[in-house]
C-alpha cells in the first residue's frame, strides 16, 4: 500500500469528521460516538470499493460498490467544503452576537441542494459546446473534441453511446481525442468498437493522457488502435487539406520538455495551419512561439467539484475555456464525463465542437 493512498485515506476520513461535526452541531442528539462509528463503517466500505473494484469488475454488486465508494467520496468532499464555510459563518455571527439558530436548517437545505445539483451534473448527458476560432489560411472545418471520458466502471457503454450519437448528429469533419479515454472495467473492446463506428471525412487523431499510462501503456495503445484513432506521440501528421496535427505525450507523466515541443513544431511547415493536441494544459507559450495556431487540452475537468478548482489553479496557469496565448488560440475543455466521482458541481461536462473559420 503506497504512502499516497494512506495519506488519501486519512484526508478522506478527516473530511468526514469535519462534516460530521457540523451535522452534530445541527443535531446534537446524534452523539459523537455513534457518528464516529457510522463514519468508520462508511469509510471502510468506501475504501473497500476503491481497492476491490480494481480487480473485481463484473457483476451488479461490484458496480454498485464502485458507484457507492466514489459517490460517497464526492458527497464527503462537498459536505466538508460547505461545513467549513458554515463553521466560519457561525463563528462570525457569534462574535457579533447575532442569533445562529436559523443557520442550522438553512445549511442543511443548501447541502441537500448542492448534492442534488451535483448528481444532475454528473449523470446528465453533456451538452454540445461550440467554440468558434479564426485561423488565417485554414480551410473551414468542424472538429469534435473528446477528452476525459474515463470509460469503464464509471461510465457505461450506453451512456457513451448517447454521447457519440450526439456527436454524430453534429456531422463533424474529424475527431480529436485528448486522452484519459478508458479507465478500467469490462467490455473495453466494445467501447473501442463503438468509437470506431464513428466515421468522419478527416478521421480521428489523438494523444494519451496520464491515466492511459497509469492503466497500462500497451493496453491503452491497443484501445486507440481498436477505436481507429491515429495516435500521435510527440509526432505530427499532415492532412490532405494542408492542416498539420501534432500531438504530445502526456507532459507531466512522461516529462515532455519545452525543447521537445520546440523540436516537434520546428519540423513542421510554418506556412500551413498547425493544431497541437496535449492532454495536460502546459507549455502553451512554447507552442505559440513555434507557430501553433490552435492548441487543445483537457485533464483539469475544470475542477469537477467546486471549490476543488481553486486547488487545480495552483497547478496550472489556465484550467478551462478559450484563451489567447500570444496570438495562438488555446482551448481547455472540462471533459465529457468525470474521473471516479460521478458528480459535477459548477463545472459542467461538455462535448466540444471546434469550428474553424465558420
* CATH level 1 name of the largest domain: Alpha Beta
Describe the sheet with the most strands. Answer: 6 strands, mixed
Q: Which term fits the overall shape?
A: globular
| CATH homology-level superfamily of the largest domain | Metallo-dependent phosphatases
The neighbouring-strand order within the major sheet is 1-12-2-3-4-5
Element-by-element helix/strand order: HHHHEEHEHEHHEEEHHEHEHEEE
Number of helices: 12
Got a strand count? 12
CATH fold field value of the largest domain: Purple Acid Phosphatase, chain A, domain 2
Helix content percent band: 40-55%
The fraction of residues in strands falls at: 15-25%
Q: In CATH terms, what is the architecture of the largest domain?
A: 4-Layer Sandwich
Structural class: alpha/beta
How many domain units? 2
Low-confidence stretches: none
**CA-atom Rg in angstroms:** 22 Å
Overall pLDDT, averaged? 94
Q: In angstroms, what separates the terminal alpha carbons?
A: 52 Å
Amino acid at each position: 500500500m503506497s504512502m499516497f493512498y494512506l495519506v488519501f485515506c486519512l484526508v478522506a476520513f478527516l473530511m468526514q469528521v469535519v462534516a460530521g461535526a457540523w451535522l452534530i452541531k445541527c443535531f446534537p442528539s446524534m452523539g459523537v460516538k455513534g457518528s464516529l462509528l457510522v463514519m468508520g463503517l462508511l469509510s471502510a466500505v468506501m475504501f473497500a470499493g476503491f481497492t476491490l473494484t480494481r480487480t473485481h469488475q463484473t457483476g451488479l454488486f461490484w458496480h454498485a460498490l464502485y458507484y457507492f465508494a466514489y459517490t460517497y467520496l464526492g458527497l464527503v468532499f462537498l459536505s466538508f467544503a460547505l461545513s467549513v464555510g458554515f463553521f466560519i459563518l457561525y463563528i462570525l455571527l457569534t462574535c457579533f452576537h447575532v442569533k445562529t439558530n436559523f443557520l442550522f436548517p438553512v445549511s442543511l437545505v443548501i447541502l441537500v441542494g448542492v448534492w442534488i445539483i451535483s448528481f444532475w451534473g454528473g449523470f446528465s448527458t453533456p451538452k454540445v459546446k461550440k467554440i468558434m476560432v479564426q485561423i488565417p489560411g485554414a480551410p473551414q472545418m468542424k472538429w469534435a473534441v473528446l477528452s476525459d471520458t474515463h470509460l469503464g466502471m464509471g461510465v457505461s457503454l450506453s451512456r457513451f453511446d448517447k454521447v457519440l450519437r450526439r456527436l454524430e448528429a453534429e456531422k463533424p469533419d474529424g475527431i480529436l481525442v485528448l486522452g484519459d479515454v478508458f479507465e478500467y472495467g469490462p467490455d473495453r473492446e466494445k467501447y473501442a468498437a463503438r468509437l470506431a463506428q464513428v466515421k468522419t471525412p478527416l478521421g480521428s487523431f489523438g494523444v494519451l493522457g496520464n491515466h492511459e499510462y497509469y492503466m497500462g501503456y500497451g493496453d491503452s495503445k491497443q484501445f486507440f488502435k481498436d477505436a481507429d484513432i491515429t495516435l500521435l506521440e510527440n509526432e505530427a501528421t499532415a492532412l490532405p487539406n494542408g492542416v498539420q496535427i501534432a500531438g504530445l505525450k502526456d507532459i507531466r507523466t512522461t516529462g515532455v520538455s519545452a525543447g521537445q515541443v520546440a523540436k516537434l513544431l520546428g519540423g513542421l511547415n510554418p506556412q500551413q495551419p498547425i493544431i497541437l493536441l496535449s492532454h495536460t494544459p502546459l507549455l502553451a507559450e512554447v507552442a505559440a512561439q513555434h507557430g501553433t495556431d490552435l492548441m487543445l487540452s483537457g485533464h483539469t475537468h475544470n475542477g469537477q467539484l467546486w471549490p476543488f478548482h481553486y486547488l487545480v489553479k495552483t497547478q496550472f496557469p489556465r484550467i478551462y475555456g478559450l484563451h489567447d496565448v500570444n496570438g495562438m488560440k488555446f482551448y481547455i475543455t472540462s471533459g465529457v464525463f468525470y474521473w471516479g466521482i460521478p458528480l459535477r458541481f459548477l463545472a459542467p461536462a461538455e462535448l466540444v465542437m471546434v469550428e474553424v473559420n465558420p
